[in-house]
Amino acid sequence: MDYERAPLRLFKVLFAVVLLLLLAKGTADPDLWGHLRFGQDIVAAAQIPRADTYSFTSDRPWVNHEWLAEVLMATAYERLGRPGLFLLCILIAVASVWVLSATLGASQLGEPVRVGLLLSAFLGSALQFVTIRPQLFSVLVFAVLLWLLGRVERRRPREVVWLPALFACWSNLHGGWIVGLGVVLLWAASVAVRRTVPWRWAVSAPALAALGSLANPFGLRLWTFMWETVGVGRAEIEDWAPLWHVPLATPWWLMTVAVLVLAWRRRGDASFFVFLPAAVLALLSLKVVRVEPYFAMTTAAMLAPLFVGQGPARFPLSRMPTRKELIVLSLLVTVGVSAAAVAAAKNVNCLRLDVEKRMTPEVEAVEFMKLNHLRGKLLTWFDYGEYAIWHLSPALKVSYDGRRETVYSAAVQRAHMNFYFNERDARYADDVNADYVWIPNSLRVVRALERAGWVAIFRGSKSVIYSRHTGLYVQPASVVGQRCFPGP
């Protein structure tokens, strides 16, 4: 038995345990219902729709820049149900960690440093693994991008020819490709100044990546769409908030900054430009917390060469373990793997709805609308929209959902925001000729609607449904116990 490799193998097992526990704690994202429905539509029609049919206020051509991710998610769900979604999430997460490990392994690092950097990158991006959504694909593709750029810098410059294929895939999976393109630009400037890659190959890398991103059903329209939407204010979306608005993400950002500072102290005669991509992403992730995973992964992968020769080549336990150590380690691994397996098994059969969150769609409200066969136009809170699309379409069309700027103009988005938080004026419901209004009961507009004569036909613990007219309605029974996707 190769006892010298035992500690590294143990850490790999522990990584797998933590991954499973994270995924087992995952919940259904408010947009998951829409992603699956839109993916099902694309598979059924064998084409990508350009006009929206689910909303009555959508006013721009539909640029579905996540269509490929939605097809993959819908296929997993259609073939295997909820376990299919969970399995897809596990495969993406494990593949991401494996690619990062391979990237760090190519830097000839000692095992303790390699594990430490991998742990830093993993923890910095772990929040992306908590929910099943297209962002998961961006984490994996970005890991592959860092692996490829590392190979190019290690005397294989001609491998930049793979960038078009990588970005062609990425631009159809998720909008995170725009961050990837920015990193390629920063990396190209860095290696060109440092002369670690021939100038012609360094300059060609961003051009090849940009060329690949055009291989999508929308062509240049995808570029104009990204130009129009990146940077749009999204204060109500946690992922787009500044770092200081998301306390759970702050410790991992500080951990990555610590790695960056440590690398700076150990830079020796390394150029400042080595730090350019990581430094820019550090600043961007302060403004938009969604950038944090890219910052963590870039810091670990691109600054890894600065740690070569640092620390021991092996862990202190890289020796023949004693009987006592073997027993203790075996118990720890057994307990960890068992706990992860039990938690994962529960989530395989029940992808949880996070009912504790104030803005999570209330399942009793959907049951109410189904029981009473409501039809027409439903003015919705945006986090309710895709949940309503899954359960209530085509009987009810929504006014707003998580697709936001992909089908709604800035004017429509502003109008909804103004409506939600206006305690004096509820005229927007009349302006769009809504038949019903379904919103959280904590919004300010609730008072304005009641003053304007709208009738509350359903009141739940978190949301309320208003109608223009009173009537006799069947009230649903309370849903008790654990609530699982797709619900109610």
Explain this structure to me?
The chain has helices spanning 6-24, 32-45, 67-80, 82-105, 111-125, 135-153, 163-170, 177-194, 199-213, 220-229, 250-265, 276-287, 292-302, 323-349, 363-371, 385-392, 410-420, 427-431, 445-451, and strands spanning 376-380, 396-398, 436-440, 455-459, 463-467. The radius of gyration is 25 Å and the shape is globular. The mean pLDDT is 86. Helix 1 (6-24) packs antiparallel against helix 4 (82-105) and helix 6 runs parallel beside helix 13 (292-302). It folds into two domains: 3-30 and 63-307, no CATH class; 363-467. It has 488 residues and is mainly alpha-helical.
Main β-sheet description: 5 strands, mixed
Average predicted local confidence, pLDDT: 86
Span of the ends, CA to CA: 52 Å
- Spatial arrangement of strands, main beta sheet: 2-1-3-5-4
Features of this protein?
19 helices, mainly alpha, 5-stranded mixed sheet
Please write out the topology.
Blueprint: H1 6-24, H2 32-45, H3 67-80, H4 82-105, H5 111-125, H6 135-153, H7 163-170, H8 177-194, H9 199-213, H10 220-229, H11 250-265, H12 276-287, H13 292-302, H14 323-349, H15 363-371, E1 376-380, H16 385-392, E2 396-398, H17 410-420, H18 427-431, E3 436-440, H19 445-451, E4 455-459, E5 463-467
Parallel strand pairs: 1-2, 1-3
Antiparallel strand pairs: 3-5, 4-5
Helix pairs in contact: 1-4, 1-14, 2-3, 2-16, 3-4, 4-5, 4-6, 5-11, 5-13, 6-8, 6-13, 7-9, 8-9, 11-13, 12-13
